[in-house]
Amino acid sequence: MGITIFGPAAFFTSITYIAPMMVQEAGFSSGGVAGLMVLFGLGLAVGNWIGGRFADRSLFGTLFVTLAAQGLVLLVFWAGVESQWVAGISVFLMAAFGFATVSPIHKLVMERASHAGAPTMAASVNIGMFNLGNALGAWAGGVTIAAGFGLASPNWAGAILSFIALGLAVLAWQSARKGYILPVLE
User: Fold this and answer.
1) Which stretches of the chain are DSSP H helices?
2) Mind listing the pLDDT tens digit of every residue in the chain (186 residues)?
3) Residue 5 in contact with residue 128, Cβ under 8 Å?
4) pTM value?
5) Looking at the domain 2-185, which fold is it?
6) Where are the domains positioned within the chain?
């Protein structure tokens, strides 16, 4: 469940504070932020489709690529936030890679839960953990801003969370290869 918490938390660190970040750091107007939200929505749709398509081919491969890419995009977003082009592309890619993780994460949880005989319970808990990730991401982004790191700082905080999720995915992959399940990831 740790992957479910930290993976989505990564993009929630940024998207929670996207309006002030884009207006004050990237120089978008309020109307421009609405356009960025359309890009974000398109990224979510594309990412969900890609994640679902590739999770069946390579569950862990999809997780590794999408979590690493999400972390890298968030770092680029942090470093290049003052460029409207970088910001716009980053918003789309952050959403795409962020939501490309959802299907493989859910599939991983369901596979693990089926072995334990509790897939229905796991599905419910998994959605709760996704929402916990939402709260964690918003909190982490707020902490970095409150600490004086600036409005773009939620992006590097999100990158850290994405890389934590990637580390947990590697642990889950290693445990699956060895035939045992880490209790923390069930």
Assistant:
1) 2-15, 18-24, 30-55, 59-79, 84-100, 102-116, 119-146, 153-178
2) 789 899 999 999 999 999 999 999 999 999 999 999 999 999 999 999 999 999 989 999 999 999 999 999 999 999 999 999 999 999 999 999 999 998 898 888 888 777 767 777 877 888 888 999 999 999 999 999 999 999 999 999 999 999 999 999 999 898 878 766 555 444
3) no
4) 0.90
5) Growth Hormone; Chain: A; (1.20.1250)
6) 2-185
